Amino acid sequence: MSITSEPIDFTDFDALLSAVSGPVLTPADEGYTAELTGFNLAAIPAADVVVGATNAADVAAAVRYARSNGMRVGARATGHGSPIEGRGTVVVTTSRMAGVSVDPVTRTARVEAGARWRDVVAATAPHGLTGLVGSSSSVGVVGYTLGGGLSPLGRQFGYAADHVRSIELVTADGLVRTVDASAGSDLFWALLGGRDGFGIVTALEFELFDLPTVYGGGIFFAGDSARDVLHAWRRWAPALPPEAGTSVAITRLPPDPNLPP
Q1: DSSP H or E segment with residue 89
Q2: Across 63-88, average pLDDT
Q3: pTM score
Q4: CB 196, CB 151: distance < 8 Å
Q5: Per-residue pLDDT tens for 135-164?
Q6: Phi/psi at 232 (5° precision)
Q7: What is the band of 206 on the pLDDT scale with cuts at 50, 70, 90?
Q8: Could you give the CA distance from residue 182 to residue 166 in angstroms, rounded to a whole number?
Q9: Burial call 35-46: b when 16+ CB within 10 Å, e when fewer
């Protein structure tokens, strides 16, 4: 397990401001609400301090500040999940950390904490490669993968978490660590599927797969057809070949000219 970072003891707000490259916001600052707003607009999160991280060092500084002041720490990437928040909390947003690098020779990708699957697809598709992307390309890679990551390609390749090579994260002591199956393996395996509570992940490295062509799409039915559709789907799905994946969603959709009636 590799560890990087210099030990700095943060005891006041000015120390945090001087150490972080990205914005550091309090409820009195312009942009505070926009920084915290996520995918679910019904949830209105709050925090004493919001740190807009641009790199792992910013995340480490935020954690050290919180630790020095007895505060809790939460993280928000693409805003699909609800972070730890409230009074006495520092929330780290990682949406600015969206870097993606692809090695077509080793068939691996390294993604930063704020990257979405659409960023990965755009970088891997020219090489005829793919990661185990979920059904929505707007979802963040890190949260999806550390929750297991069941892809439409999962029947053929398994869970996305099973193909992670290494994880870079900031742990509660404010250090940047890189763990894999051999170095820091207990933490590595805890993160895969355990997802939250072990630190703030700043980057992942994972395997890619040869897949130059994909066929897919959606079929929409009226809500009152759900019973018949589900029974038919239950009979049909088990007979599909391993290369084919399928799922069902029952949802209320808003009026939209791009959607069927």
Answers
A1: strand 86-93
A2: 82
A3: 0.86
A4: no
A5: 888 889 999 999 899 898 999 999 999 999
A6: -65, -40
A7: very high
A8: 10
A9: bbebeeeeeebe
